[in-house]
Write a structure and sequence with these properties.
Blueprint (H helix, E strand, L loop, with lengths): L2 H32 E4 L4 E4 L1 H7 L3 E6 L6 E6 L21 E3 L9 E5 L18 H6 L2 E5 L4 E13 H8 L4 H11 L12 E8 L10 E11 L2
Parallel strand pairs: 4-5, 6-9
Antiparallel strand pairs: 1-2, 3-4, 3-7, 7-8, 8-10, 9-10
Length: 227
């Protein structure tokens, strides 16, 4: 490797580290500012007024206990601003956790996106769901919104090509879509009476043949209201 190439590579790695460190500190500060934990009832209380003052695009919060997933959910659009923008509006390659659904959690299927970062942040933990032991110990996730809290129970996990996924789901009814998710899952899970779904998506590098990768991890969960 030439000296110039080494300098460029070192600069990129250093810049990536700085952005990771900045993103990590931002999220830790946000958690300390807006979240109060209730260990007795095993729930959290969120200061939505403060969150909205920070960024009105924050429409929810996602938490998977005993993982690093504890992030605000941003409302994005087809321009995908939050692929490379932090929750506070600053540019950062770690991006944000976001959805482009028009009516998140009111629709039959709400898809939530996040990067699969090499540094282990954002939605990188989703790759662990192909391990049965991890799945069995992390089967539920929590979604909080200003007016409603939800619990979601995972019933499907798999990796596939995003274009194949889009084509396979085209023209399916909701019930047919549920059966598709169950059939695609690496593991069979006994979850029934599914009326709404939350679908977590991040990049996968299994069986990948494109750059950027067209493979995705999908974690599908039954969404139910709590209180």
């Amino acid at each position: 490797m030439s000296a110039l190439a080494l300098i460029v590579t070192s600069y990129i790695l250093f810049k990536d580290y700085l952005e990771y460190d900045e993103n990590k500190k931002l999220n830790e500060n946000l958690i300390s500012e807006v979240i109060t934990s209730d260990s007795i009832n095993e729930t959290i209380y969120i200061n939505w007024k403060k969150l909205k003052q920070i960024n009105n695009d924050i429409i929810g919060w996602i938490e998977i206990k005993n993982t690093n997933i504890n992030y605000p959910i941003l409302k994005d659009n087809e321009e995908l601003k939050y692929l490379k923008t932090s929750y506070d509006g600053t540019k950062n390659k770690n991006g944000s956790i976001f959805t482009i659904n028009d009516n998140p959690f009111a629709e039959n299927v709400t898809t939530i996106y996040g990067h699969n970062m090499k540094n282990g942040t954002m939605f990188s933990v989703l790759r662990n769901y192909l391990d049965e032991d991890f799945l069995n110990s992390h089967k539920q996730l929590n979604v909080y919104t200003e007016n409603q809290n939800y619990i979601a129970t995972i019933f499907s996990c798999y990796t596939t090509n995003i274009y194949e996924e889009t084509n396979n789901l085209k023209n399916l009814s909701f019930n047919e879509e549920i059966e598709y998710y169950k059939a695609k899952s690496k593991y069979n899970m006994d979850v029934e009476d599914i009326e709404k779904v939350v679908k977590l998506s991040t990049c996968s590098y299994i069986n990948n043949h494109t750059n950027p990768t067209s493979e995705r991890y999908f974690i599908i969960a039954k969404l139910e209201k709590t209180h």
